[in-house]
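@channel sequence for tomorrow's demo:
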Amino acid sequence: MHKQGMKAWVVPLAIATSAWVKWSIGLGDYSGHATPPMFGDYEAQRHWMELAIHLAPQQWYTYDLQYWGLDYPPLTAYISWLCGKVGSLIDPSWFAFEESRGIETYNSKLFMRSTVVALDILVYVPALYAFTRIWHKSRSLRTQHASLLILLFQPALLLVDFGHFQYNSVMLGLTLLALNSFAVGLDLLGAVCFVLSLGFKQMALYYAPVIGSYLLGKCVFLGPVQGTRLFIRLAVVTLSSFILLFAPFLPPIAPLSTFFAAISRIFPFARGLFEDKVANFWCFTNVTLVKWKQLFLGKESRLIRLSAALTVAGFLPAVFGLLWGSFKTRLRTHPQVVSRE
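structure tokens (generated this afternoon):
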């Protein structure tokens, strides 16, 4: 298309084709289909929409936890409320309170699949396009287009979100918006975007060490005066964003116990370090090497502390490297200012 003078058509056609592929993948089967009593992640997401539109926010994290109790942060719940409201306008039976559990009619599945594609197009795709333009701005337009194509058709995300049924692209899109903001110097906007990413899915914590290190490193680079000013602004913006996200679960709107109930669901340490169906390091090694559950029977808190210690030990070297790099860069670029300080 570049050779034929059709450069302007690459992006719209790439986005349209990726949307068609995502929709086509959604026509297939999915985990939990026709498998009572829980029906898989598809039913979990549908059930959260049902809860969100029928219950007050103060009940979202406490109602019938044995049947897909809500365990994602508030932004997921707010989006579930919006999707549930829209779906109920089309057909109220899709989200009838407690009566719609396990519903798998053709039209309900069509609506649920369309919400994944729609949110992907609204959040992830624009962030991805901006990412290729901002982070590859010194590269040719052809390279930018190639990068966009590669990222749009990333197989893992296609299978997990549009095959298995999840909304990971929303979290990833908000994280990309944060990175894009940092790249153009809009650090406060980037902080808000990353809080929204965390507020959508706690899995965004994977990126927190590097983003926190970057922002702290920039404060170090700017020096005591400007750096302290930026640090205070970031702290205020970040804290305010979290408070707004959790406002329905905080006093005076709700008792403090409502907030703690939400936190205990979002970070469910009471369930143990891992569940057998979750594919992480602890689950894998429990099956193949060491029976962690038996070894720490009755001492689960120790296993959680061990996991936390290993996690911190894993990312601390990179954090120190980023901070030291920021300080060295300041030494090179502002040697006289640093010596006076």
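heads up for whoever presents: The chain has 14 helices and no strands.
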